[in-house]
What we know:
Oligomer: single chain
Largest sheet: 12 strands, mixed
Strand content: 15-25%
Order of helices and strands: EEEHEHHEEEEHEEHEHHEEEHEEHHH
Amino acid sequence: MVFQIAVGSTELTPKVPAFPSLWMGGYGWSPRGSSPGNVARELKAHCMVIWDDGYPNVLLRADLISIPRDMNQWIRGTLIDEGLLADTDFLMVSSHTHSGPLVGDIRPNPYILMGLNQADIDAVNGTTNVLIDRLLDLVRATLNKTRTTVTFRYAETTANIGYNRVENQTYVMNTVPILVARKANNNRVAVLFGAGSHPVSRGNDTTFDCDYPGRAAAQIEASLGVPAMFFQGTCGDQNANEPRGNSQVVNLGDKLANAVINKINANTGFTNVTGPIMTRIEEVQLPFAVDTTNPTVVANLRNRYAARLTQFPTDDVNYRHAKVMVDMIDGPGLPTHIAMPIQRWRFNGLTILALSHEVLSGFHVKLKAAYTGKLWVMGYANEVEAYIAPDNVLWNGGYEAGFEWPDNTIAGGGSYAEVYAWPAPLKASPVGVSPAVAGSAEKIIMDCCLDLLNNP
């Protein structure tokens, strides 16, 4: 079965005066911003529309650090309200480049992350609105482009571009998924590819850069003469290899690109991917380690966060996070869970499973082991507002777990739970108990994923 596709792209690099803010995301805990024209490589967004029996399925990827929940809901809702597509047929992924703009004002929280004042936060929101408009216009334009009839073929190769940064975790994401669209005459039309490593190869400076994913895509496009679209994997615990700097962006980008180019040119190991496309999206609610619906628990948290306000100076991240938590408790109330959309696109010959948030590689390992078919697991999909760690990481604490061991009853200093303005880490199974138990975050996620993989 053949498909019809169209591919479009647009630029997302913040530039004045179109973008009100040049504040950057990706690193805390002090203000970090660029200056006009300080750009190493342009940030881009790409859109592929796949028409299956006349119905559009939209893949949108962007060189952004994250996509907040409200941004995802606005873009998705707008496209649905305009009658352009169905909810399950829209999939959006951020590359997670750490050399891009700060996006949104809730998660991550600009005040907690960098101590920004309200005027700066308003500017960040202005830039976010420009990004939203550009992404919406890209989807609309691509839906209206001339369609090309294609077939798809899928293969995997490897590229060693990163390492596992979490203590006692050894799995390294080196799989490189590749999906190639070709015309009937076998000429290539587009390439979709992925990897699983934090785009931090440039390092913490003030230059906008799409990092190694953008460099890889540009090299693939130059070599093969067709658009190349990068999709990030479950790399919450994976960092790009060091040292940091512009030369490392080139080094790792070229290494990834060469792996893709060599595999495509060899044209071995590819299998056919056909329709129909069966799409589903589910949203699970991940519980915290403490019950924030319990008044006694909330009162205890308020006391502990109020104590932090006296323990840390006002310019310290722990003070800023504590202030936000106390204000939440005294105002609208604490969140009771972390929402996690999980999306599936099933072809004949390939299943794409797209997980929201900064999911750690342990879930990739578990899902690959549990599913016998061809499976492409994406992370940073649709919205990014937390780290999602499996039990064996949650048991030990740390940045990705959200707390300082052994106290998992409150957000840990300098952890993701502070970055993303959560009151506590996620709920784990009892230490040492495997498989994950009912009610734990890991069990909830795996049950949903396996349902999506094994059922219509």
